[in-house]
């Protein structure tokens, strides 16, 4: 029997189990001034504190006919779904019973003045070592929608991840018709071996890591893989009802196309930011991104596949398999005539390299109303992003198995980012410890060249360093990410920790600073925390640096992060307590 997921009605008005008693003003005999006072208190009354323990340890997980000792959270793969409301506080005690150092990142949460809860290893904290614990405590502030959490240390996030769903405050409706039910859809990748060994081999040889053996939906590969069909995820629906799919790309390295056979998807949010609704047959979603879609069960009652496969924009090997789950109408006939099983209907997905469809999808994203886009820019940055190659003195070395006896690398503005090891960046900054990083990250490439054209071989080797870019508090920032053709063009999903930003423009070829800004959408651009660079093209973002601390900026393709496709923004404190990084917690891990 296939695994059926139980129906869940996860509406904003769903009763949630709170761990903290909340008192609400109820007296009708108070004076008008006291009523105003209690009304003020009532704005905080529905906020809750949610306590969780996340035990990180190896458990047997069977996929593709084989059982692996897999790093999980609370024995679950994928990990637990967290559900909160805007304004709630999460207190999560991470207990490391595994054999690897680990950290946890709450992807997309602003973490205002609280980088200590952000989680990237050696950036805002030292790792939680085996046998140790660390408690992440943070409050959701003015955010609602679909986010997620994942390990942020080496390749542990291949199996350590889960959904983080933020419902609106009580009494606040969605800006779209209320769905009958909500279903988290986590897209992932599965290796038929230990993902940490896959990374270790790649870092030793300098070659690209082996591609995954399966794609997954909610941890299951689906009907098209060996030993998998009995566990394919099934989502029952009633004919005529509308459901909300909260789609998360938690894959390590693979952008994906996703669709449901014969059903339109109405996009209503991305990265926990609402959008102008629009209908589509397929979405393109990059690692790190989330997309909320409404689906109405308006087709003939039957079984329909939802499916996802790769969008591959690079000239590189990729996992060309297809993962499936089943949308099952409850009123569908159990079997076809003559006792044959009823085969689900399969969706039409774009070709693996269909950049036109990917671009057509992202170009439709708009904020629902006029956005507060910074118009006067204080810091205008131009960041080239792409791969590179490190030359070897002995090209025949077993450590130089990249192209033509080299080692793969990656960089932003020719700086290949190196994580520190003696201390985390944020701890070193807070403690005033010198020698861990510098703040001379270049605001533009050291050499101008034809970024998306034929790049001279002498420009392929980046410089390794731990350089940060410093921003003043409340600085208005524009960053143009320019993909390069070094090694290969590619859609790089760039994720900025601690911030949401507006995607004001994009295009193919080299960015034209004289003419392209005139085409920017400064009215209703989409708001995101992760945005892809069009392959061989550019994308422009704007935001206000209103969150002090050190915030990682990196490509969310995890094979590119250890190669150096990252930097960090150091946002200085403003004036007063409310514009200053809060003190670190007492149990912050030490290096």
UniProtKB/TrEMBL annotation:
The main place the protein resides is secreted
What detail does the entry give on cofactor binding? Binds 4 Cu cations per monomer.
The yes or no answer to whether the keyword Transferase is present is no
Which top EC class is given?
oxidoreductase
Q: Which CDD domains match?
A: CuRO_1_LCC_plant (cd13849), CuRO_2_LCC_plant (cd13875), CuRO_3_LCC_plant (cd13897)
Q: Where in the cell is it found?
A: Secreted, Extracellular space, Apoplast
Domain (Plastocyanin-like): residue spans on this chain: 57-169, 182-331, 440-573
Co-factor requirement: Cu cation
Q: Which EC numbers does the record give?
A: 1.10.3.2
InterPro entries named among the record's database cross-references = Cu-oxidase-like_N (IPR011707), Cu-oxidase_2nd (IPR001117), Cu-oxidase_C (IPR011706), Cu-oxidase_fam (IPR045087), Cu_oxidase_CS (IPR033138), Cu_oxidase_Cu_BS (IPR002355), Cupredoxin (IPR008972), CuRO_1_LCC (IPR034288)
Give the catalysed reaction(s), semicolon-separated.
Answer: 4 hydroquinone + O2 = 4 benzosemiquinone + 2 H2O
Keywords tagged on the record: Apoplast, Copper, Glycoprotein, Lignin degradation, Metal-binding, Oxidoreductase, Repeat, Secreted
Q: Name one Pfam family in it.
A: Cu-oxidase
Would the keyword Transmembrane helix turn up in this protein's UniProt record? no
Q: Which family does it belong to?
A: Belongs to the multicopper oxidase family.
**What is the documented function of this protein?**
Lignin degradation and detoxification of lignin-derived products.
Name of this protein: Laccase
What lineage does UniProt assign to this protein's organism?
A: Eukaryota, Viridiplantae, Streptophyta, Embryophyta, Tracheophyta
